[in-house]
Amino acid sequence: MDLYSTVLAMTNETLVASFVAGDSYPDVWIRDLNTFITMASGANPQTDVRNALNGFFDRQNATSGEVPDGYRPNPNATSPNEPPPLQWPSCTGDTPDACKNNVETDQESSLVSATRQYVDYFDDIGFLAEHITQLELALNFLANYRTTDTYNNLIWGGTTFDWGDCQAEDEVQDCRILEPASHRAIDVYDNAMYALALQDLIYLESLLNRDSSIYQLLHDDLRSDVRKYLWNDDTQKFTNHLYLEEQAFDPSFDEDLVYYHGGTTIAMLAGFLTNDEVAASYQRMKDNVKLAGGEVTVGLTMYPPYPSDLTTKMMGEYTYQNGGDWAWFGGRTVSALAKLKFCDEAREALQPMLERVVVNNGFYEWWGKDNTPNGSSTFHGSAGVLGLAIQDVNDNC
Asked: Per its UniProt record, what InterPro entries does this chain match (predicted)?
C-alpha cells in the first residue's frame, strides 16, 4: 500500500464513531468539524453526521444568530435558553453544554461551510431547507455584531496568533474571552473564512432557488475590503492585525515582520490572491521552514514566532499556536495548491506531513520544532484535512 492509501485508511479509521475534536477533547467543536466533516461522512452513518451538525443548530441563538464553539454530546444535558450574544462560558473542558471562545470569529462561518459539505456529500436538500434561515442568521450575526463603520465589511475578533483562539496578551484574565483588557483587531483568517462561508451560502441558496444577490454583493465588497485594508503590496503579505483601538504589543516591536502561514492559506482558498501571489506566498512559507530550522513543515503557524517576553506565558516560541507546526493548516495549504494546479508544490508540501503520521502512528495535534508530536494523537482536524489534501492532489493533479 502506498503512502497516500495508507494515510487515507488511517483517516477513515480515526474518524469512525466520534465527532469530538480528538481523544483529549470532550466537546464537538464547529471549527474542527468543518475541517473533517467530508471525510467523516464517508466513515459514519448519515444520521450521525446530521446529528453532529444539529447539535449546533439546536444551540444557535435564535435572535442574534450567534453560534457556539462547541457542545458536550451528553443526552442528559440541557441547551442554554436563548443566551445573549457573547455570553457563553469559555471552553475550559468542564462546561456542561455549550461554550464559546469568543476572541475568535470563525464559528458562524464554519457552520455554514460544514453544512455545505454535508449537503454536498449526502444530497440532503430537506436538511438544507430546514436550516437555510439559520445559516443566513449566522452570517447576519457577523455583519451585525462583528463589523465597524471604519472598515466596512471586515469582521473583527481579539488579538490572537493568526487563526488561534487564545489572545496573545498576558494581561487578559481568560485568553479565550473578550474583556476590557482585550485588543480588538481585524485579521485575514477570520475574513477569509467569512468569504468562504458566503460562497458556500450562495451555492446553498441556489439549490433551493432562493435569491442570493445580497450575499453575492457582500462577498464582492468583502473581497475588495480585504485587498484595500489588509493586503500590503510592498511587503507582499497580509497585515497581521488591523487594530480598532490601541495595538496589543509594544510599539517598538514590528508585528508585521511575523508572517502568518494559516491565514495566508485560507486567503488562497478564498480567492484573495492572484496565482503569482500564491506562488510567492508558498515560496515564502518554504523559506520560513528553512529559517525555522528543525524539521517543521509549511504547517508552521508563523515565522518568526512572537518573542516570549511579549506574549502570554502559556505559549513560548515555537509552541502551540505561537509557531507550532499544525498539519490541520498545512493540509489546507496542500489543498489550496492542488486546486490552483500547483501540483509539484502540493505534493512536495504534503509528503513530510504524511510520513510523520505513519512513523508516529497517529494524527497528532501539533508538532514541535524538533519534530516531536504534541497534543491529541487522534486530532480529527489533522486527519480530516490530510485526507482531503490527498483527495485534492489525486483529483486535481
From this structure: 6-hairpin_glycosidase_sf, 6hp_glycosidase-like_sf
- The answer to whether 322 and 365 are in contact (CB under 8 A) is no
Q: Look at domain 3-396 and name its CATH class.
A: mainly alpha
pLDDT given at position 79: 45
| The pLDDT value given to residue 84 | 44
pLDDT along the chain (397 residues), means of 10: 93 95 88 98 97 95 94 59 59 76 97 98 98 98 96 97 92 91 97 98 98 98 98 96 94 93 98 98 98 94 92 84 97 98 98 97 95 94 98 97
How does strand 185-186 pair with strand 242-243?
antiparallel
